[in-house]
Amino acid sequence: MIDFGNDWNELLKEELQKDYYQKLRVFLADEYRRYTVYPDMYDIFNAYKYTSYSDVKVVILGQDPYHNPNQAHGLAFSVKKGVDIPPSLKNIYKELHDEIGFQIPSHGYLVDWTKQGVFLLNTVLTVRAPTANSHAGKGWEQFTDETIKLINQKDAPVVYLLWGANARSKAKLITNPKHLVLQSPHPSPLSAFNGFFGNGHFKKANDFLNKYGLNVDWTIN
Known about the structure:
The protein is α/β, with parallel strands linked by helices. Helices cover 32% and strands 11% of the residues.
């Protein structure tokens, strides 16, 4: 049994017993044995381990993990220190700088955000190198949809940042009027100039949270 180390244990206990998830486990065991798969199997659930359910204030939804060496470590858009900052994250940093004067760091390690309740979730949690979306349709989507539905049930306000078609398709799962859903194109260089740049999402998120005495300091140390 997976130990998230927090309240996700109880919330996802039944989900981890379901038939589809057991089939997903068998598939993953075979994939990790035969191929290079990212992230490391011990990092798959880092989004859950780093941000408890009760602490979630902002959800940033990615697609699937980075599929090149040394990048993915279980948090959407994040890479460990010492790894080149990927293009999409560079564009996220640029938007933060333009919105709030964010000091762009020398690395892409986003753990400082997770400690403040920013849940960095991919809709698919594993990928076979070097092929994006290679683990799509294997069961992860059902698991992460259930995660989004659980967060939707929170009484406390949550901001969802949905960038790109894949993330925006999840908006229908967010029905709680207490929450704020912000949508735009993806920060990828292919689409950032089509509406990601200038979306104001980070400032809008804090303007909303401030009404409830909440805040996210987007600074990365």
